[in-house]
Amino acid sequence: MKLRNYGEDRLVAELTSGLSRGKNVRTSIGDDCAVIGARGAKKWLLLKTDCIVEGVHFTNRADPFQIGWKAAARAISDIAAMGGLPLHALVTIAISPTAEVSFLKAIYRGLESAVGKFGAAIVGGETSRSPDTLFISIALTGEVEPAQCATRSGGKIGDAIYVTGRLGGSIRGKHLTFTPRVEEARWLTKNFRIHAMMDLSDGLGADLPRLARASRCSFEISEQNLPLNTRCSSKNAISDGEDYELLFTISPRDCEKLESTWHKKFSKLPLTRIGKLNRQSAINNQQSLRGFDHFA
Q1: Is the pTM of the predicted complex or chain greater than 0.85?
Q2: Nearest-angstrom CA–CA distance, 53 and 264
Q3: Distance from CA of residue 118 to its chain's centroid?
C-alpha cells in the first residue's frame, strides 16, 4: 500500500507501536515533545526534532533569513506547547553544492535570531550535500517544571477549548515569520491549570482531533466563533495550517478569570473560546474536520 493511502497519523502509529519506552520517560511519541524526568526532579527535559523541506514548507523564492527563522521557530513552538523553555539546538542542513555561501549564511542568521530571541543557543549539527532540494532539521532540547508541563492527553469532558491569535491564510507570509507563543504558554501554565495543550501546525482540522483522541474525548466547535485572519473563511481557519497558535483546554469554571486576566496581560493578542470537549460514545458526535496531512 502506498503512503498516500495511509495518512500521517496512521503511519506514525504503525511505525512506532512496537517501540520500547525508556527509563524516566513521562511522555513520548504522540505529543509535541518527548518529556524525560526522574521522580522528584525539579525540572523535566523536553526533546523535539522537526524539519522543513523545500517545496513542502517553503518555496525556492523564500527569503533565506525567513527559512532559517521558520526552521528553528517550528521546534520552539512545540517546546512552548509543553509549557517549557528552549535550551540547545542541533542543526542539520542538506543543500546543493551549487548554492551560494551567502544564502546559507543568511539561513544561519535566521536560525540564530530565532533561538536567541528565546534564550536558547545553537550548539552543533551537521551539513550534507543534497542533489537538489534544501532540507533543514532541528533537534532541540528544553526544560519545564513538572507542575507546568502541558500534554495533549489531559483534556477532560466539559473542558472549554481555546485558541490564541487568529487562524487561516498563513501562506500569505505568516508561515515564515510567526512568533512561537513561549511567553503566553508559560503564563498560562503558571497561572492556570491547563488540562491539555498543543500548537497548531497542521491546522485546527488536523490538530484538534489529535488532542481529543489523546484525551479520550470527542469535541464540538462553533465555526462562527473562530478567530479569522483578514480575507479568511472558517474553512481556511480549519484547513490551512501553519498558524502556530496555542490550542488548549481548561475547566469552564476558570473561563471568566482566564479571559479577564488574559486581555490585561496580552491586550494585542486575541484569545477565543471556540468549543468544548465531550464524552466519547458509540454514536459519533465529533465534527468531521480536515487539516494538512503529509501523506494524504
Answers
A1: yes
A2: 39
A3: 16
| Helix and strand totals (H; E) in the chain | 8, 11
Identify which of 24, 28, 13, 46 has the alpha carbon closest to the alpha carbon of residue 182.
46
The closest alpha carbon to 214, from 182, 181, 248, 253, belongs to 248
* pLDDT: which is higher, 288 or 131: 131
- Number of Cβ within 10 Å of residue 152's Cβ equals 24
Residues 164-184: pLDDT tens digits? 999 999 999 999 999 999 999
Phi, psi of 7 (to 5 degrees): 90, 150
Q: What span, in angstroms and rounded, lies between the C-alpha atoms of 203 and 19?
A: 28
Map grid coordinates 524539519 to a residue. Answer: 51
Residue with cell 503558571: 190
What pLDDT does residue 13 have?
A: 76
Which amino acid appears at position 160 of this protein?
A: A
* 46 close to 79: Cβ distance less than 8 angstroms: yes
Domains of the chain in sequence order: 18-147 (3.30.1330.10), 150-278 (3.90.650.10)
